[in-house]
Amino acid sequence: MPEKIGTLDDIVITRAIVERYFQKLLDHVDVDVAVAGGGPAGLTAAYYLAKENVKVVVLERQLRIGGGMWGGGMMFNELVVQEAGKGILNEFGVSCYPYQDGYHTADSVEAITTIGSKACQAGAKIFNLISVEDVMIRGERVTGLVLNWTATEVAKLHVDPLTIRAKWVVDATGHPSEVLQIIQRKVGPKLFTSSGKVEGEKPMWAEVGEKTILENTREVYPGVYVTGMAANAAFGGPRMGPIFGGMLLSGQRVAELILSKIKSPAKKKCSV
Ligand code: 48H
Questions:
Q1: pLDDT at residue 272, rounded to an integer
Q2: Mean pLDDT estimate for the chain
Q3: First and final CA of the chain: distance in angstroms?
Q4: pLDDT tens-digit series, residues 31-65
Q5: Residue whose CB lies within 8 A of the most ligand 1 atoms, among 154, 182, 247, for a mutation test
Q6: Label partner for 19 (CA 20 to 30 A): which of 52, 75, 89, 198?
Q7: Reading across the β-sheet that carries 97-100, which strands appear in turn?
Q8: Whose CA is nearest to atom 18 of ligand 1?
Q9: Is 56 helix (H, G, I), strand (E, B) or coil?
Q10: Can you tell me the distance from the alpha carbon of 94 to that of 98, in angstroms, rounded to the nearest whole number?
Q11: How many CB atoms lie within 10 A of CB 89?
């Protein structure tokens, strides 16, 4: 065996992982922002929040982060962004290539690995293999998320969940808008949409989908913002296929909206 490796004790390795993991988890059971879903929108939001020293955690059901970005369009791992989306990819340092006026392409694997890395390096903590299965509501506000191991979900085990508290929750779960579906199931049609329910995404129309996603990125229930594909699902915007600028811009926008709330919290009445 090469000299450089030195002695290694399997039990020390085990202790290191267990101690460090639980330290990390305990440091993040009470956060400023909890993002459900580590796709492009959730990771971009986490990056812009963490960059401003906001304590942010991302919960991702799968083993891997990145949501639907890896596969580009129909498993051709290239994605398209418009001018504004390119600005964000440039900020992350992802290589972009002009295709024709107003259209740029990027390698989807380079894009999502870089965005994930930048989010982590900015200070966002990502917990993979954890599913959001419920919300905590106090009064009429969501105050946290209810979590379980994805493995229990997959194996359909009867195991009770644990919770984390968050000042703000972001639904970045993509097409299914899972956090909003849970809220709707638990409290009825009280979302800030026209029917009070998740309106459901409309047929594919890239141009309109990319425009409406920014209008639809907003608070959708007290304490809960929606971003990415979940935003168009919530408010009934069209899907847009493999143009990913809207996801990045929506992630950036939700971060800006939450940052503005954190920096100028609503004034409370003094009880004199
Ligand atoms: C923990 C969860 C849970 C849960 C889901 O699907 P995503 O990539 O979502 P976005 O909005 O960042 O990006 C959407 C984009 O990928 C896309 O699908 C587009 C542009 N479609 C257009 C079209 O026309 O089809 O990522 C969401 C992530 C995934 O990684 C899920 O595993 C995760 O959220 N997730 N994580 N708890 N309950 N539900």
A1: 46
A2: 96
A3: 74
A4: 999 999 999 999 999 999 999 999 999 999 999 99
A5: 247
A6: 52
A7: 78-81, 103-107, 97-100
A8: 68
A9: strand
A10: 13
A11: 22
Distance 66 CA to ligand 1 centre (A): 8
Which run of H or of E encompasses 72?
Answer: none
Phi, psi of 149 (to 5 degrees): -65, 135
- Digit-coded pLDDT (tens) for 239-269: 999 999 999 999 999 999 999 999 887 665 5
Q: CA-CA distances (angstroms) from residue 31 to 54, 56, 144, 162, 258?
A: 8, 6, 9, 15, 13
Atom 15 (ligand 1) nearest CA: 68
Question: Using an 8 Å Cβ cutoff, are 161 and 146 in contact?
Answer: yes
Which residues have C-beta atoms less than 6 Å from ligand 1? 36-42, 59-62, 67-69, 131-132, 172-175, 178, 204, 228-230, 239-241, 244, 247
Ligand 1 geometric centre to CA of 186 (Å): 22
Task: Report the half-sphere exposure of 138 (CA within 13 A, side-chain side).
Answer: 7
Substitution site in 44, 48, 61 for ligand 1 pocket (most atoms within 8 Å of beta carbon): 61
| Nearest Cα residue to atom 29 of ligand 1 | 67
Q: In CATH terms, is domain 27-153+165-233+243-259 a member of 3.50.50.60?
A: yes
C-alpha to C-alpha distance for 167 and 67, rounded to whole angstroms: 24
For the CA atoms of 116, 117, 123, 125, what is the dihedral angle to 10 degrees? 50
Ligand 1 atom at minimal distance to the Cα of residue 65: 30
